[in-house]
Structure formats: structure tokens, C-alpha cells
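Our consortium's second objective concerns turning raw sequence data into structural hypotheses that experimental partners can test. To show how far this objective has progressed, the report includes one record in full. It was chosen at random from the queue rather than selected for favorable results. The single chain below, 351 residues long, was entered without modification.
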Amino acid sequence: MNYALQIQKLLIQRDGLSSPNDKIALLKQAINLADAHNDVEWGFDLRLDLIRDEKETSRCDESLPAFTWILDAYDKNPEQLDEEGFLWEYKWMLGSVRRNRLISLEQIDSIAEDFKTRLLRNGYSLRPYYTTKAHLALFLNNLEDARKYIDLRNQEVRDEMSNCRACELDDDVELELRLGNFEKALTVGNSMLTKKVTCVHMPFSCYCTCVKYFQKAGDMTKAYEYFQKAEADLTNLSDTSQISEIGILIRFLTDYDREKAWTFFESHAHWNLNSEDYLDFLFSVSVLPLLASEAGKVLNINPSLEWYREDNTYDLKEVYNFYYEKAKALSEQFDERNGNSYFSEQFAEAI
């Protein structure tokens, strides 16, 4: 069979699947066929599909090497391939390199500048570039820089490469919450929090952020209000990329409704399998308070988890240590990479 027909057959199979993992497996087969026949255009398009499918998971195992290939292929074949066609995915990759402890801040800055160059070359504003800079500042807990970049973002024209309004409002709300400006946060984000503007993960993700910071402030009534909103929206979400938000909900329930916290943990712990470093850290830190106070428990968890036992009976000290060691190691590695102590401070809060 002609390899192009084989690729098309695999894509038809992929379209009938619901699991991102199964879709990715078929796409990898298709990519191997394209590469074996030196078909750059097929390799380019298939890798973009792979990145889009992996975006629905908590992992980034395949996307970074795929995107590196895309950049190299375009730079070698600018007349044959469309640079504009991967700029949206470039934003996602900037998020992934930020979340990877092995990629230095210098490398992240260099990648961001390359993104900036490509945006300008294709006639787009710098609104998405400043958004990625704001995300890095929030990641590093540099709140003054986050404010600066959000202000610069707002001065740029909104175009089709810009994040949607709901996602931008999510950034605005998080910044105000982290600065302790709770009323301002709710006012700024009102149109998104009331679902006048939405996207795939908004306002669910923002509801979880509200839960986190109201809980930290000791306002459990307000935290519960946003927990209820998040829980209602969770029924419509199935992609495992939301594992850090699940961690926030488990952390809240640990203090508010412990039995329900265990239900969330049992149902979602496997979403964290092979997750990106930052997501792995956030989930591990979030579940430590739940695991800390009980010696043994029967849990019905996914068998794919590393610490699964066939008899479903667990020494929670062992499970606690599993997440403790991961969170501790990741906090130290991120702090070394980032040049501050923000991750260690989050780890200390959890224990």
C-alpha cells in the first residue's frame, strides 16, 4: 500500500478514538511512515496533530521533540512550509519549557525571543509574547514583573494569535489574588467567572485558583463557594492536563470534607502519571496534607499507579513518602533553576 494511503488510514482510525494516548500512538506510526519516506509536509502536519493531542494530557513527552523537529524543518524549508501554521502551538511549548526543570531560564528566554521574532515576521502583535512573559513571572513569583508584562500585553493589539479573553482574565485574577486584592480579583474577572466569556478550561481553572487563595486566606466560606462552581464544571472535563487543579480541590477538601477528598484522590491520582515536572510538583504537594494523618487505608486506585497494591490496602506513610520525596526533589531542582526559594516555600507550607 502507498505510504500516503497508509497515513490516511491511520488518521481515519485516530478520528474514531477518544483517548489522547491512543491517538498519539497512531500518530507516531504515521510520523514514522512520513519520515521513512522523507515526506516533510506530512511529518510537519502530523507532528502538529500530535502536539494538539498531547495538550489534552498532563504529559509533554512527545511534543517538545516534535516541535523541535518542526522548527528545524521550517528553517530548512521556509518556501515549502507555513511558519504561521505553528505559532499557536509555539505558545504551548513555551509553557512546557517553563514547566520542565531541566531547561534553564536562559534557554527559556532565548526560546521566547525566537517566538517574538516569528510573531513580528508574520505581522502579529506582541500580545501573546507578553502573555508568555507574564506567565513566567507568575511562575517565578515575580509579581511586579507579572504586572508589568500584563500592562504591556494590554497595550498591544488583540489578534488571532492572542490568548482568548477568558484566559487573559484568568491571568489577571491570579495576579490580584496573589497580591491579596481579593475584591479586585473578583471584579476584574467578573465576566469570565460568571461565564459571559469562556473557553475550554475557563472558568473551571480560575474557580480552582479562587479556591486555593481564599483557603490560604482562611476564608473557607468563599473557598467552598468556588469549589462548588469548580465541581459543577469538572463533570464536563476529562483531559488529564487539569491535574494541578484537581490537586487544589483535594487540598481544599482535606480541610473541608475529608471523605470527599479521598474520593477525588482515588478517582484522579492516575492523571498525574508521567506528568510535566511542574504539574507533578503541584499535585504531589497538594496531596501531602491528606496523606499525612492516617496510618492505613483501603483505596480503590488505578492499577497503573506506581504504588498500586493488588489487595487495595495501603500504608499511607509509604504513599506519603512517595509524594514527599518527589515534591522535595522537584522543589530543590526548580529553585536551583529559578534562582530563588519559591518552590521550597510551597513545599514547606504543605508539610
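The partners drew two points from this record. The chain is about 70% helix and 0% strand. Residues 1-81 form one domain. Both points have been shared with the crystallography group to help prioritize constructs.
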